[in-house]
Amino acid sequence: MDGIKAFVDAICDYEDNLRRTGEIEEDQKLPSRDVLEEVCQILLNVSCMREEGRFPSFRVCYLRPDSELLDAYIYAHALLFKKPIEFNAGSIHKLAPALNPDMSYLMVDVSVRPFKAVGIIAAFTMWEKIMTGERVTGNRMPKIPNILVSGPGQLRACLGESLIVNYSAGQCVFFRTDTFTSTLVADQLAKNTSVSKRERLQLLYRVLWQVTNYGHGAAILIVPSPEACAGFIDLKYPMPGKYLFHDDARAEISSGKVREKEILTYADMIAKLTSVDGSVILTKDFDLVGFGAETLVDQMESRHPEMCFISYNNKANKLKTFKDQGMRHRSAYRFCSAVEGSVAFIISQDGTIEACTKHDGSVVVYDNVALPLI
Question: Could you tell me if 293 and 223 are in contact, meaning their C-beta atoms sit under 8 angstroms apart?
Fold first, then answer.
């Protein structure tokens, strides 16, 4: 239970922060810690129970069926059981196959004991977006705090579809949701670029999401200019190309849905280039420099740069060190240390993402980066 307790504490701390900043409404309030811990333990038990050879995957929320919050989501509908179902491992195990984690929430009433499953929130799905690959899932789930059962022994705390903290095999992994908006990495990416913030984020989210799906691991290095990094890389496949394949004249006439398609196409191409050994190099304007890049350690002043690993709570993690990281990570750290103004995204084979840049003489690393919805 210690792991579940840490998981619940992280969820409640996150909710407290959102409440202080006014980012969630009263209807989104979570139950007490002890109730949430009990619910998570039931869900953990269900997660390990097969039904016809499959492990379940579904979402649970605590929203009241009469909540006015649902009125804001015209594509979401609450369907109530005529007779509430007791919320225990056995009954939820049988119910779970009817629940789609991309389209529904199971509503649980925890105001009285025993807890009851009272209904299902069903959400509209945009199949066209799925088929064209423009969306990860077919809808934006209503922005409701929920617990996702994602696999045997695995729970995820989410706000809508956005991941907050992951629980797996007794351990909690905390995810950053602010990496692209309010960190040193975000500040660095915004410097000296002509690409709008909206397009910059859309492109980055899409590229990183695709790379995590490939499952091969990768590094994407973003530099102030091709000249800034020329002495520190051996570029196997130089391929200079303009952002969205355009020259300035074509970029001006590309707008609306056409431009959206261009962003997706360009992002997917960049992501696919990571399948080749070596790093992909982009400028801050997202012009392509090339791929298959090897960093030249001998050309760098420091083989062991000063490091600062930042935890999800923005405190320095003294337990992590440079030498404990993998080769791909160390190469990216050295690169950021050598090339002023650069940013690196390192994607592991398991899909976890790190982002780093240099600040005040140290390479600052943000790990477990969570991708917002695309």
Answer: no
Q: Which among 342, 108, 129 is positioned nearest to 223, based on CA atoms?
A: 342
- Residue 148's beta-bridge partner residues? 59, 156
- Could you give the CA distance from residue 176 to residue 296 in angstroms, rounded to a whole number? 31
Query: What residue has token string 């692209």?
Result: 180
Q: Is residue 130 scored above 90 in pLDDT?
A: no
pLDDT in tens, 67-122: 877 777 767 888 999 999 999 999 999 999 999 988 899 999 998 889 999 999 98
Domains of the chain by start residue, with CATH: 2-174 (no CATH), 184-366 (3.40.1700.10)
Which tens digits make up the pLDDT trace of 201-220? 989 998 998 898 888 999 99
Handedness of CA 326, 218, 174, 2 (dihedral sign): negative
Residues contacting residue 239 through CB under 8 Å, at least 6 positions apart:
288, 289, 290, 291
Looking at this protein, which amino acid is placed at residue 92? I
Closest CA to 328 of 354, 344, 310, 346: 346
Q: How far is CA 212 from CA 123, 163, 275, 354, in A?
A: 26, 15, 11, 12
Residue 142: φ, ψ to 5°: -50, 140
3, burial (CB in 10 Å: exposed 0-12, middle 13-18, buried 19+): middle
CA gap 183, 116 in Å, rounded: 42
